[in-house]
């Protein structure tokens, strides 16, 4: 079993006036058998976090624990990479081009001088599990990207690691095989009962695999939580965007008799009762805010549907016009405009809507999010930050 803990870990590269802080004061815990995600944009510090866990880097300050034992602390590695029992799939898979798939998978076992019979058994077991038996005799240059990725996963698993680290493992794969690659990894982790971590900038990877995740931005851990919690209760606009799509409307909010009036652009103006809008109450009358609405919390009514009744859960935001709509797995992705708002707004529809169609826009009342002008949520939920200084991070 393995549980990982980071305690106030900072990692800087370079010296003197050329110091680059890649990870700043990060604390988090990954429980035994958890599938933990790390999500953030390019350069956020994701790979650095994995390299620290793998023992390929030492933290400049702070401590890293495996099962309550210190493995690295304040610039010193106490348990080296070989002693940590980790399988890692690197961002570029890093397969040996001159070796066959079999030899790539067997490589860590040969390095351990395991008997040939055992190696063969292990490689074949993993190749069966990941469905690549037919390519074992071929070199990486002669197999598909999806197969290379599975060879890399098999190699990472060959040593029976107690921890599997995956660094953007699907970024070089076609959209069509990404889903099957994700479900394969998910079932392998389940079957082998190991702790796993995945780094990605793609929310789809995080949602399909991770139970819990950390959102990192500029080396700072902004929020840690269950994936659905990050989605529904983001600390900031950065988090909301990292974990999914969100429409953001700069607005002004007014308070009146237990109601809020929200205005955006020329055309958005609606009232909502204080109970439905789950703010933390620290909103001033006339305050500038940013209204955040997830695509799935919008419903579009066309002229025919406009007379139909909708329940109290929805509020009429404004009228607008469809810009374009496209098809994506069973639903139509619709981009529309509303007068006086320069941004496109994104949602989905069960029916195709052609460009220019006038629409009436409804929004689910208690799913609206509000952020202050710094981009920090002013909603009534609490978040876990992982020790970083949040306000600084949001700027
Ligand atoms: N060995 C190094 N020397 C100097 N700077 C480094 C080193 N490794 C990483 N960095 C810097 O630290 C920051 C974080 O890098 P890291 O590779 O962890 O980002 P990442 O989140 O994995 O990005 P990507 O999504 O592009 O892979 C970057 O600014 C990077 O340039
Ligand atoms: Mg990286």
TrEMBL record:
<dbReference type="Pfam" id="PF17847">
    <property type="entry name" value="GlcV_C_terminal"/>
</dbReference>
<keyword id="KW-0472">Membrane</keyword>
<feature type="domain" description="ABC transporter">
    <location>
        <begin position="4"/>
        <end position="243"/>
    </location>
</feature>
<keyword id="KW-1003">Cell membrane</keyword>
<dbReference type="InterPro" id="IPR017871">
    <property type="entry name" value="ABC_transporter-like_CS"/>
</dbReference>
<dbReference type="Pfam" id="PF17912">
    <property type="entry name" value="OB_MalK"/>
</dbReference>
<dbReference type="InterPro" id="IPR047641">
    <property type="entry name" value="ABC_transpr_MalK/UgpC-like"/>
</dbReference>
<keyword id="KW-0547">Nucleotide-binding</keyword>
<dbReference type="InterPro" id="IPR040582">
    <property type="entry name" value="OB_MalK-like"/>
</dbReference>
<dbReference type="GO" id="GO:1901238">
    <property type="term" value="F:ABC-type tungstate transporter activity"/>
</dbReference>
<dbReference type="InterPro" id="IPR003439">
    <property type="entry name" value="ABC_transporter-like_ATP-bd"/>
</dbReference>
<comment type="function">
    <text>Part of the ABC transporter complex WtpABC involved in molybdate/tungstate import. Responsible for energy coupling to the transport system.</text>
</comment>
<keyword id="KW-0813">Transport</keyword>
<dbReference type="GO" id="GO:0016887">
    <property type="term" value="F:ATP hydrolysis activity"/>
</dbReference>
<protein>
    <recommendedName>
        <fullName>Molybdate/tungstate import ATP-binding protein WtpC</fullName>
        <ecNumber>7.3.2.6</ecNumber>
    </recommendedName>
</protein>
<dbReference type="InterPro" id="IPR015853">
    <property type="entry name" value="ABC_transpr_FbpC"/>
</dbReference>
<dbReference type="InterPro" id="IPR008995">
    <property type="entry name" value="Mo/tungstate-bd_C_term_dom"/>
</dbReference>
<keyword id="KW-0500">Molybdenum</keyword>
<dbReference type="GO" id="GO:0055052">
    <property type="term" value="C:ATP-binding cassette (ABC) transporter complex, substrate-binding subunit-containing"/>
</dbReference>
<dbReference type="InterPro" id="IPR003593">
    <property type="entry name" value="AAA+_ATPase"/>
</dbReference>
<dbReference type="GO" id="GO:0015408">
    <property type="term" value="F:ABC-type ferric iron transporter activity"/>
</dbReference>
<dbReference type="InterPro" id="IPR040856">
    <property type="entry name" value="GlcV_C"/>
</dbReference>
<dbReference type="GO" id="GO:0005524">
    <property type="term" value="F:ATP binding"/>
</dbReference>
<keyword id="KW-0067">ATP-binding</keyword>
<dbReference type="Pfam" id="PF00005">
    <property type="entry name" value="ABC_tran"/>
</dbReference>
<dbReference type="InterPro" id="IPR027417">
    <property type="entry name" value="P-loop_NTPase"/>
</dbReference>
<comment type="similarity">
    <text>Belongs to the ABC transporter superfamily. Sulfate/tungstate importer (TC 3.A.1.6) family.</text>
</comment>
<comment type="subunit">
    <text>The complex is composed of two ATP-binding proteins (WtpC), two transmembrane proteins (WtpB) and a solute-binding protein (WtpA).</text>
</comment>
